[in-house]
Amino acid sequence: MLRIKYDDMVNEFKRILVSRGFTEKNAVDAATVFAQNSLDGIYSHGINRFPRVVEYLDKGEINPDVVATCEMSMGAIERWEGHRGFGPLNAKQAMDRACELAKQYGIGMVEQQPLDARWKLRLAGSKPGMHRYLLVQHNAKHACMGR
User: Fold this and answer.
1) Per the CB 3.0–4.6 Å rule, which of 5, 31, 88, 111 could disulfide with 14?
2) Cα distance between residue 50 and residue 132, in whole Å
3) Is 83 tagged catalytic?
4) Does the predicted TM-score (pTM) go above 0.90?
């Protein structure tokens, strides 16, 4: 089995993502997601997924420039639109927002819907001292997951 150093993976992923329009910061964050998933043995969302993401970037199916926005707010519950941005970065933004809401209301829930509707992500709370509950419907090839 070929072994690749973690830092080498992050740097190469970052280089490619910057060449496809990601900002430096977003490229580092996204590259870290891919590398960490591979390190954790989740290859379907790590190194094995990366070529498909590059393909989606090249086709314009993922827009590296957009930022998710809040479309509806009802106290501790919000619905966000991902605008075809990079899913893991949008999910991180949603999780951070859910944590802010939880600090304010005791619970925070953010539902995020990308424009292409391939997956939905519901997030509630999750940093030290908070409990998280995730429901993910990724696509037809992956079952719903929660934890």
Assistant:
1) 31
2) 27
3) no
4) no
